[in-house]
Design a protein that fits this description.
By secondary structure, the protein is of the alpha/beta class. 29% of the residues lie in helices and 21% in strands. The strands form four sheets. It has an eight-stranded mixed β-sheet, with helices on both faces. Strands 13-14-15-16 form a four-stranded parallel β-sheet, with helices on both faces. A two-stranded antiparallel ribbon has the order 2-3. The structure holds aspartic acid (ASP). Aspartic acid is lined by residues 13-14, 55-56, 87-89, 112.
Length: 336
């Protein structure tokens, strides 16, 4: 057997940043694989693939579909594993989209950096090395996670990981669960396995349909103007990030109920940790009212993940009812 090949697909973000022409402000300008070029990654051939040089706020669902196809192409072209590098700001969303697309029968590994390669104490090279080591680890191949995120010597399931800090190198955490694994002395050690995927690989069902799902947050003294704007603006679904267990005011609940007659409405929690309630409170706008009005609970999925999931399901040709049922199943998969 020859030495293993890992394709590193570079999509910009801090891990690819260097000072721009003004010599100060950082802009994406290099392949992520450059941060480890010159160093040897023991016994691994790193195949560097430049995909884009952008901030992660520019990534679109259509781009992620094309990326998933490229990941398959790299594997067909002999790559034993694939690492994707991108900006950390949208990493919790795009990694989950890749996880649902499941382009390979082994997880795709996503990483980035909180400190640019030129910054003191940069985590760029260490994160990329950790991602490559994880991508080749035999136990990862057995993992049912469609994608994992490796940051700060931790391996997280793409489904549960969230960016919880704007600047620190330990910005990524999986609340309630913790990481799937950790790296000790550069070697992955797995702590637990995720349950098998609840959905088929959505890349095989991708229709190219352009789907827009809005995300709104419940706030104190809220009016319904933005919810009515969602109805008028041709969105295909709405995720509402409710208060605490997923609650909104009675006025907002009525507007959501009217919207749910036409498009799927999913409620998550702006607390970003813990499952939304489904059977406790009966006030107007509480979960029992929302469910009566046709809203679907997001389980433990934070709103950002629920929006990715609803978008991907609707793109995959499922009917509204099928998409809602599958969303419920995926949102509750992983709790026993
Ligand atoms: N704004 C950058 C991006 O998300 C930050 C980062 O890479 O962490 O692309």
């Amino acid at each position: 057997m020859g030495i293993p090949t890992v394709a590193v697909i570079s999509m910009g973000g801090t891990i690819s940043c260097a000072p721009g022409d003004d010599g100060r402000a950082l802009v994406p300008r290099t392949d992520a694989a450059d941060v480890i070029s010159g160093d040897s990654v023991d016994g691994v051939e790193v195949r560097s693939v430049q995909w884009s040089l952008s901030d992660s706020s520019e990534i679109t669902f259509n781009e992620l579909i094309r990326l998933a196809r490229e990941i398959r192409r790299q594997a067909a072209d002999g790559a034993d594993a694939v690492v994707v590098t991108q900006g950390t700001d949208s990493l919790e969303e795009s990694a989950y989209a890749l996880s649902l697309l499941r382009p390979l029968d082994r997880p795709v590994v996503c990483t980035g950096a909180m400190r640019a390669p030129t910054a003191p104490g940069s985590d760029a090279a260490s994160n990329l090395r950790a991602a490559i080591a994880t991508a080749l680890h035999p136990e990862l191949a057995q993992s049912s996670a469609g994608a994992v995120v490796v940051m700060n010597d931790e391996i997280h399931s793409a489904k549960w990981v969230q960016k919880h800090h704007t600047q620190r190198v330990d910005a990524f955490t999986s609340t309630d669960r913790g990481p799937l694994g950790v790296l000790y002395e550069g070697r992955p050690r797995f702590l637990r396995q995720d349950p098998p995927p609840s959905l088929p690989a959505l890349l095989d069902r991708e229709t190219g349909r352009h789907v827009r799902v809005a995300l709104l947050t419940a706030v104190l003294d809220q009016d319904t103007a933005l919810i009515e704007a969602v109805a008028r603006s041709g969105y295909h679904g709405l995720v509402i990030e409710g208060m605490g267990g997923g609650h909104v005011s009675g006025v907002v609940a009525r507007a959501l109920g009217a919207l749910a007659r036409d498009i799927p409405v999913v409620y998550a929690s702006r607390s970003r940790a813990g499952a939304v309630l489904e059977r406790t409170y009966g006030s107007p706008g509480a979960e029992l009212d929302l469910i009566d009005r046709g809203a679907v609970p997001a389980g433990e999925l934070p709103a950002l993940k629920a929006r990715v999931l609803l978008t991907m399901l609707l793109r995959s040709g499922f009917s509204r009812r099928e998409a809602e049922a599958l969303l419920r199943r995926e949102a509750h998969a992983g709790t026993r």
